Amino acid sequence: MPEGRYWLQTLGCPKNQVDSDKLAGMLEADGLAPSTSPEQADLVVVNTCAFIEAARQESVEAVLELADVRRPGARLVVTGCMAERYGEELAAALPEVDLVAGFGRRLVPLGSARVTPLPTVPPPAVPEPVALGARRRRAPSPSLESFDLLSLPRPASAAPWAYVKVAEGCDRRCGFCAIPSFRGTQRSRPPADVLAEVRSLATDDKMPVKEVVLVAQDLASYGRDRTAAHRAAPGRVRRPTPLVSLVEAVAGIVPRTRLLYLYPSGLTDELVDAVLATGVPYFDLSLQHVSRPLLARMRRWGDGDRFLERVAGIRRAEPRATFRSSFILGYPGETEEDHDALLAFLDAAQLDWAGFFTFSKEAGTFAEGLGGQVPEELALERLRECTELQDTITARRRDGLVGEVREVLVDAPGRGRTVHEAPEIDGIVRLPPSLPVGRLALVELTASHGTDLLGVPVDEPPAAEPPEPADAPDAAEAAPDAAEARAPAGAAR
Fold first, then answer.
1. Domain 151-230+238-396 sits in which CATH superfamily?
2. Is a pLDDT exceeding 90 seen at residue 434?
C-alpha cells in the first residue's frame, strides 16, 4: 500500500499540464497516491508558470494559499518554470516552501514512499542570467537524480482527450520571450516514443482517449533538430516533414488530432493539407501582432497582409476551418498606427478565438532594453479595444453555428466539444447529462449563449414518456450563465 498522498496543482499552459501528468506518474511510481484535497495530502506540489509577471504572481499566490491550508507536517514543493528560472531567489523569498525543484529533479527520495524534506537546490545552470536579480546560478547538487520529463511514462488520462508534448524548448529568440533561456533549445521526442504514448492513451481500459492535442513551444519545428532538412535533391521525391508524418500517424490512431502553437511561417501548404485531412480543421497560430515594423522589433516573421492571405486560403479549402491566435498589446515602440492596423486585421480576419495580453518586461530578453516603452494604462486601453471587438466577432461566429449538426466529444457530464473548440481554452457545447463521457455523438446546435452552445443529440432514441411541456425548462433557463469562469486562453507565445 502507498505510504502517503500527494496533491499536485498546475498553473500555466497545456505544456505544463503534460509535465504535471508525468510528475504524477513519477510520484505514484515512488509509492504515493493522489489526495482528494490539499488539506489531506502529505506532499503538496505546485507546478508554476513564469512566462509573464501576471503568471508569476498567480503562482506565488497559489503557493502561499496552499501553505496556509496544508496539514501539519505536510511538505510543500515548488517546481516548474518559476523554480527553474528563479530557483535560489524563490527559495529565499518563500520560507514556507520545503523544496524548490527545477526540471528533472525528484520530489521525493528515490526508492522511498516516505515524504521527507530534501535540501533546497537551485535548478540546472542556463546559458544566460535570467533570475530576478540577473545573477548567474551555480550548478545543482549532484545528490539528486536528474531525469528528462519528456521520457517519463505517461499515466492514463482522466478525460477522453489528452495533451501530448512532442518537444521541449525552443530555437527561436522572440524579443519578448525568456522561455529558451530556461527551457533550453528544442529537443524533439522520437516519433516512435510519441506514437507509443498515443497508443497507450487510446487503448486505456478505463478512459480511452478520443482526441490527442499535440503541443510544443514551437510545434511546426518538430523534428528539425533530429533530422536534416527535408529538401529533395534533384530527381528525388520530397519526404514529408517530421510534423506532417507525425500528424498523419497520430490521426491513424485516434479519431481527433489537434495542433496547438503553430508559428505562422511554419504553416506550409503540406501542413495545412495534413491538418485538414485529420477532420479537425483547427488552426492555432501564434501571430502576436500584424504591424510589420513592430513584428520586426519582436524578432518575428510576417505581417497582417500575409496572415490574411493565409487565413483566406485555408477557408477557401475548408470553409468550416476554425482559427485562434494571441496578440501582445503595448510592446515597446507600438504606435497608434500599429494598434489601428491590429484592429483592422481583427475585423478583416474574423478569427473565431483570440487572446490578448499586455507586454511584460522579462529579464534577459531583447525587449527588456528597448526604448519606446508604452505606458501601462495605454496598453490596457488598447487591450480593451481589441477584446471588445473580438468578443463581438466570436459571438457572431458562434451564432453562425446554430442550426448545424456537428459531432461532439463528451468531455464530462453535460459538457462536450466539436472540432471548433480546443479543450480548456475555448467555449463548450452544453449537452444533456445523460450522454456518456467519451462518446462521439451527433448533435444539433440549437442556441448560443456567449461562447457556449447548446446541443441536442440527433441519434438518441426518443424518451419513452416525454415530460409535459410545462415541466420542460426553457433553453435559456437550462443553460448556465455564459459568463461562467473557464480556463483562460494560453499566454502569448
1. tm_1862 like domain (3.80.30.20)
2. yes
